[in-house]
Amino acid sequence: QSVLTQPPSASGTPGQRVTISCSGSSPNIRDTAVHWYQQFPGTAPKLLIFNSDQRPSGVPARFSASKSGTSASLAISGLQSEDEADYYCALWDGRLNGPVFGGGTKLTVL
Amino acid sequence: QLHLQESGPGLVKPSETLSLTCDVSGASISSDTHYWGWIRQPPGKGLEWIGTFHHSGSTSYNPSLESRVTISVDTSKNQFSLNLNSVTATDTAVYYCARRVTSYNWRGYPEYCFDPWGQGTLVTVSS
Could you report the per-residue pLDDT of A31-46, keeping only the tens digit for each? Predict the structure, then answer.
């Protein structure tokens, strides 16, 4: 089974740009799309980015994502206090025929 | 607007069967377009996929749970269910149902993610 690795925590101050990384090699991030979910305490995850860099309707443009080689990253620009949440990367494992999630990154806005 | 709502007992005894239902409104689970799934999250931990199904009968389960899991559908009620048997304390988690959606990557291949999710329901396994 594949493993997606995320830093357990990240932080930034209001207005700053913060990035959260996600790396994985089996299946290779290089070969498949990465999705990102945002989860506030006590609530369900919400799809934030799909297909590596696409934002669903309603997601602010200050959330962006990219992929390079075996790593992906989520960037939040103009950080706001309400961005404090857990962020999960995920990809679809064709061998599993199911998703694999990263361990999640807790973002703190200082 | 699509809405999913989980329901079921919040407390299950060890060795018994955990049974949850996901009520879907705003879309038909009989639609050929979408698959539906269950994901869980132990308290303070990350997300774990349980299984995915299509109303046609196509299912896939997480190999780590496959021997204990069954996902079924009741199209007349527009709901689907999760049964997880022989539960232990490690099955304590918030259980979410969600719709699987399809997009296409730069190669034209389908990619899948979950959107939206139900609000989740906490199931505690304890005697």
Answer: 889 999 999 999 999 9
